[in-house]
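Hi Y.,

Following your request, here is the sequence exactly as I used it, all 216 residues.
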Amino acid sequence: MSHTPTKICVLISGNGSNLQAIIDEVAAKRLNATITGVISNRPGAYGLERASQAGIESVCLDHTTFEDRDSYDSALKEQIEAFGADCVVLAGFMRILTPEFVNHFSGKLVNIHPSLLPKYKGLNTHQRAIDNGDKEHGVSVHFVTPELDGGPVIIQSRVPVFEDDSASDLAERVQEQERRIYPLVLSWFSAGRLMMRNNKAVLDDQELPESGYASE
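Below is the corresponding structure, written out as tokens. Let me know if you'd prefer a different format.
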């Protein structure tokens, strides 16, 4: 059964490598979606150029020009709704969102975080994994709830941590997995297979465990 393409709005702050992975999957018709808009909170974000090259409408809402977090999130909400988004994809969007904003888009808001949640919420996850002597590290895609990096996990991908790894070595390994699993999650969402119910990630009407879908 074919579904109408899901309208996706992607929020970025920087390079936009996950945005590019999503653009590529849509172009290859492996992801039944349309990226209706890209929003950056930073004017110089290279992801805006990626959007432009793909013919996708993009907007910069520079957070430094807003009085406070509430007024920024209010403008952000209006812009997302102007793009008609069914799904809001946080792809390296370096902003903490207000509970009001998160609750407004509840069940439609997904994020990718470079750690095996609930480990290492927040920043500098790769260095923290190295400093703690972890043997493995990874990435999580999760639904967004008001708790920072605390929403239900949809899927995780693990990578080894080697003795001589630098944070940038580890980041590169993790980002390779990010570009693989984020489009996969969006394909589940666009097919109507994935939802958030009772603060749990649900795939094919089955609640996923805390660590998400077991892909390996």
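The CA atoms of residues 177 and 189 lie 19 Å apart.

Thanks again,
Q.
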